[in-house]
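Attaching the record inline, Q. Sequence:
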Amino acid sequence: LEPPEGQRCSGRNFQGRRCCTPESPCNEGEGDCDGPGDGGGHDGHLGCKGELVCGSNNCKKYGLYFHEKDDCCEKPSANSAKTPQVKYIPGTPLEPPPGQRCKGRNYDQGRRCCTPDNPCDEKEGDCDGPGDGGQHDGHSGCKGTLVCGTNNCKKFGAYYHEKDDCCEKPSSPLIEMVTRNPGRKPVTSSIEFGVTGPRCRGRNVDKGRCCTRDNPCVEREGDCDVDNECSGNLVCGNNNCKAFGSFYHPKDDCCVKPAVMLEPVSGPRCRGRDVDTGRCCTRDNPCVEREGDCDVDNE
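Structure, as predicted:
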């Protein structure tokens, strides 16, 4: 789960990308190296020591602490000697259309042609999005409401490298809505959030803050930070958005109705800070066994 002590290059989640270089090559199981599988201008296998070769998206087999896109130095095998098969999706253009500025790492613009300072149109790449891990641009390398995909450029053109990330329209995941009918089987239906769904859809889709005091979110929308970024009496939850849509990030906080505290029918006089207002256990009116909240023994 953690890099072994003394390991110099532990991937983009630690030292960043391309820690292994020709000037400072890596041992087996270290990464990220910049090998032939990355396309464009690369180091070949020179970022690895001796006869080792730079793999492609192979670091996870050496440690869970690596990012899924990290490339690690490994011993050569029959698989590493194979020439990667070129993928082609029928109907996609073989050459970039005239006037396209960013065409991926196979052309002069290279990787990360799409930047926050010069964002890309749909179908252009390579952008540096959340799927790349480490330090990235988020979706700011894409214009407007476009998002940076991951390894998705091939669907826009055969001229792209298989690892290029292109700007695209956000996908419209389906949210399952379950209607429970007493005495009957629950009815499951789906809605597409692009049509009838939340305005604010979390850090994987939205750019910047969406739930604000001036424009608060309704129930099931996020990401919020405090309660007054939610409409009415709603409160801001904690890492709860995944319950409302698979498109949310695991750490997105969504606006929800406050939990309803049920008053006990019978039981202790003092029931703690979630029920009682002010101090209940006092020196003048001490608590019995199993009551609280108390501060000192004589309460």
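The radius of gyration is 27 Å. Residues 46 and 61 are 21 Å apart (CA to CA).

More tomorrow.
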